[in-house]
Specification:
By secondary structure, the chain is an alpha/beta fold. The protein folds into 2 domains: about 60-85 and about 270-444, Rossmann fold (3-Layer(aba) Sandwich); about 90-240, Beta Barrel (OB fold (Dihydrolipoamide Acetyltransferase, E2P)). The chain is about 25% helix and about 25% strand. It has helices spanning about 60-70, 130-145, 185-190, 190-200, 270-290, 300-310, 330-335, 355-360, 380-385, 405-415; strands at about 80, 90-100, 105-110, 120, 160-170, 175-180, 210-220, 235-240, 245, 260, 290-295, 320-325, 345-350, 370, 395-400, 420-425, 435-444. Strands 1-16-17-15-14-11-12-13 form an 8-stranded mixed beta sheet, sandwiched between helices. Helix 5 (about 270-290) crosses helix 6 (about 300-310). It is globular and about 65 Å long. Residues about 1-35 have low confidence and may be disordered.
Length: about 450
């Protein structure tokens, strides 16, 4: 069999405008929007909120300009476009908590003002999915009724530190995580129980539609800036189903393949926009007839599972996924059960990218590598592996959420014998100084 070259696809997080690019085979066309070059965001919180840096000229932020300069020097057809609407796209949010009243208790929720620990409430944020704003209003009401106290950074006191919200798009219900300044459930009492009881009482009261999918608590009594604690021992489900389910295909497709998430795993803030990228990656792999695929930094395996679903078990030998967060595995396994004939080809290993390369042999025999690293970019061990003369991988698919690290990694790969075959940019977070990129590289 003729060897297949390993291709590199890089995705970088930015405000959600898509730059179009042609791939060989071609990627699926981006979603079209009315007047996509001049969208605006109208939000009452813009002047006080640190979440957005601009409400107009969304493609003119510095990260997009830098990405255009960099990639057009290697791939002149590089473009950026928007994969989702510019409002109501955020279906996953993490908000800080501060006192509603100095004396009476209760909490308000929002984002930190730049370079401070002062919170700006954003109850009517227009980039939030409407279900998130409804949930915030109800949670605030419940904390006032129960006199729940908010965390105070200066004294490390108080009860509620953060809230985390994720919308299940198929139902518009919101999974709520209460991040509590405590080490165990016992340490939260009686305050947590009172708050959860009030939340249940208010949810769906007087015949209103229900808001909550589930309620969780994360115990985070540690000092520092980490929003939540990692590890099963720090998570507890207090109400509702364990998993949020997202369909891999449109509801009217007649197909049941799904992805499952819990609050303890990573899920894209603009999930709708990221699925456009996942489908383009899957279509490229399908049209290229790649048969042996490894995904590192896989999270719950979104990209690898999507690629497997698009192949429907045909002409594919394996899809190997790995990530270091142990909470991902049960989500992956539940998703895998929905894949039908493709399920037998899909595996998951709990491992960092370095361990997957050096100890688990996850790349052995692969003809395509998908990577979706954090903002810091690829691990040094992986970079060294890819630029080594003995590396047999010739197709790499790279997904990243930081332009600076992406540019640095691409430069290193160029010097190590790779070339940019295609590149494409997406504004996943309209209004912010951020860009998501899809880059394909091949061995020279």
């Amino acid at each position: 069999m003729k060897p297949v070259k390993l291709l590199l696809i890089v995705l970088i997080t930015t405000p959600p405008f898509l730059l179009s690019l042609s791939l060989s085979p071609p990627l699926a066309p981006p979603t079209s929007f009315t007047n996509p070059t001049t969208p605006t965001i109208t939000c009452p919180h813009f002047d006080d909120c640190s979440g957005c840096v601009t409400s107009s000229s969304l493609l003119s932020v510095e990260k997009v300009k830098s990405s255009l300069r960099f990639f057009r020097s290697h791939y002149p057809s590089y473009t950026v476009s928007i994969p989702s609407p510019v409002t109501e796209w955020r279906t996953s949010a993490k908000l800080a908590v501060r006192p509603y009243s100095k004396f009476d208790g209760g909490c308000v929720f929002g984002l930190f003002k730049s370079n401070t620990h002062e919170v700006s409430p954003i109850p009517s944020c227009t980039v939030h999915h409407p279900s998130i704003n409804k949930a915030i209003k109800l949670i605030e009401q419940a904390t006032i009724k129960t006199k729940t106290s908010a965390f105070k950074e200066s004294s490390h006191s108080g009860m509620l530190r953060y809230i985390m919200l994720q919308v299940e798009r198929r139902t518009n219900l919101t999974s709520l995580t209460l991040v509590w300044n405590a080490e165990t459930y016992k340490d939260t009492q009686p305050h947590l129980s009172r708050l959860v009881k009030e939340l249940k009482k208010l949810d769906g009261a007087t015949g209103a539609p229900k808001i909550f999918h589930s309620i969780w608590v994360n115990y985070n009594g540690k000092k520092g800036n980490a929003i939540s604690s990692r590890g099963d021992e720090y998570w507890e489900r207090l109400a509702g189903p364990e998993f949020i389910r997202e369909n891999l295909f449109d509801d009217n497709s007649g197909r049941n393949e799904s992805l499952f998430f819990t609050p303890s795993v990573f899920r894209q803030g603009n999930y709708e926009g990221f699925t456009i990228i996942a489908k383009e990656v899957a279509n490229y792999i399908k049209e290229s007839k790649l048969q042996r695929i490894t995904e590192l930094y896989a999270g719950v395996g979104l990209l690898g599972l999507t690629a497997a679903a698009y192949r429907e078990g045909k002409d594919i030998e394996f899809v190997r996924c790995s990530d270091e967060n142990p909470a991902n595995l049960k989500c992956f396994q539940k998703s895998k059960k929905t894949l039908g004939e493709s399920a037998a080809m899909v595996t998951y290993v709990k491992a960092s990218a370095s361990d997957a390369v050096l100890e688990n042999d996850e790349l052995d025999g692969a003809d395509a590598l998908i990577v979706d690293p954090p903002r810091k970019g690829l691990d040094e061990d992986l970079l060294n592996f890819l630029v080594d003369e003995e590396c047999e991988i010739e197709t790499l698919i790279y997904v990243s959420c930081g332009f600076d690290s992406l540019a640095s990694n691409v430069e290193r790969l160029l010097l190590g014998g790779w070339k940019v075959e295609k590149a494409k940019g997406y504004l996943l977070f309209p209004g912010s100084n951020h860009i998501e990129n899809l880059v394909i590289m091949k061995k020279k």
